């Protein structure tokens, strides 16, 4: 089966710049033949996005605040008016106050907990509901998660809880929307050098540790994540739903660092 997105139209939400995971996905999907629309939040991100969108032949850009119903309504109304339907949506939106990611999880404030869960998890549920109405012939919904959802990861704190909720939401949405022919999956890359990742304390050490210990001894590339997204949105992924697809070089299978990276090297004595 040839993996192609020819004739498919999709919405990409969350491109911050050319190093964004969302951009790696968008580029791969465009190269596979998809026609794309984009959302952004705020004028600064819009200016960064314009030349990227133009490079893949898109002039459909809309400013969206996922915490505002009117803003969300306007975005999906625009898609409905211009295209009439959607084939896929990529949700790459998450946020937490970085000041609360560097300390203890027990110090998470109520306000930041609610904001983190609303933006990082509920927004995907809200997007799914709106997108499903534009998928009469079925479609694909994709979101992004991280290993901190399943294992305690330094400096991730409430974002780990938010991603755990997002992974659970992915499974429940897959069950709800499956009868409509809509597949829902999450991609879980290892740490990557992105704008969002750089905001997390200890990001460089996390990136280096993963690179040195993953079975493949390297972190995932944007191209690898993009290729996975293309597969999931294509007809080749027709019966993959409710999954958390890990693109982390196998790091998630490890119980300990590689022998050469243990504090006390393993010897026969």
From TrEMBL:
Domain of life of the native organism: Bacteria
Biological or metabolic pathway of the protein: Lipid metabolism; fatty acid biosynthesis
Enzyme Commission (EC) number: 1.3.1.9
Residues annotated as binding NAD(+): 14, 20-21, 41, 65-66, 93, 163
Catalytic activity: a 2,3-saturated acyl-[ACP] + NAD(+) = a (2E)-enoyl-[ACP] + NADH + H(+)
Oxidoreductase found in the keyword field: yes
Pfam assignment, any one: adh_short_C2
One Gene Ontology molecular-function label: enoyl-[acyl-carrier-protein] reductase (NADH) activity
Keyword Lipid metabolism: yes
Keywords assigned by UniProt, alphabetized: Fatty acid biosynthesis, Fatty acid metabolism, Lipid biosynthesis, Lipid metabolism, NAD, Oxidoreductase
Coiled coil: none
SUPFAM superfamilies, alphabetized: NAD(P)-binding Rossmann-fold domains (SSF51735)
GO terms classed as biological process: fatty acid biosynthetic process
Active site residues per record: 146 (proton acceptor), 156 (proton acceptor)
Transmembrane segments: none
InterPro entries: Enoyl-ACP_Rdtase_NADH, NAD(P)-bd_dom_sf, SDR_fam
Family stated for the protein in its record: Belongs to the short-chain dehydrogenases/reductases (SDR) family. FabI subfamily.
Record-given protein name: Enoyl-[acyl-carrier-protein] reductase [NADH]
Gene source species: Yoonia tamlensis
């Amino acid at each position: 089966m040839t993996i192609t997105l020819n004739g498919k139209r999709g919405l990409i939400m969350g491109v911050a710049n050319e190093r964004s995971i969302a951009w790696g996905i968008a580029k791969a999907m465009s190269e596979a033949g998809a026609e794309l629309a984009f959302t952004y939040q705020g004028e600064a991100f819009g200016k960064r996005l314009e030349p990227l969108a133009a490079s893949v032949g898109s002039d459909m850009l809309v400013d969206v605040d996922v915490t505002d119903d009117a803003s969300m309504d306007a975005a999906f109304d625009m898609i409905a008016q211009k295209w009439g339907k959607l084939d896929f949506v990529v949700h790459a939106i998450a946020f937490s106050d970085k000041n609360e990611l560097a300390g203890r999880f027990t110090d998470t404030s109520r306000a930041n907990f609610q904001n983190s869960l609303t933006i990082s998890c509920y927004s995907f549920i809200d997007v799914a509901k709106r997108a499903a109405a534009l998928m009469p012939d079925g479609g694909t919904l994709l979101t992004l998660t991280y290993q901190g959802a399943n294992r305690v990861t330094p400096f991730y704190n409430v974002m780990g809880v938010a991603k755990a909720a997002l992974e659970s939401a992915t499974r429940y949405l897959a069950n709800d929307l499956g009868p409509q022919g809509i597949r829902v999956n999450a991609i879980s890359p290892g740490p990557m050098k992105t704008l969002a990742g750089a905001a997390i304390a200890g990001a460089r050490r996390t990136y280096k540790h993963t690179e040195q210990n993953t079975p493949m001894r390297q972190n995932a590339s944007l191209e690898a994540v993009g290729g996975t997204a293309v597969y999931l949105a294509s007809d080749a992924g027709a019966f993959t739903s409710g999954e958390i697809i890990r693109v982390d070089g196998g790091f998630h299978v490890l119980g300990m660092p590689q022998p050469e990276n243990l504090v006390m090297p393993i010897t026969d004595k």
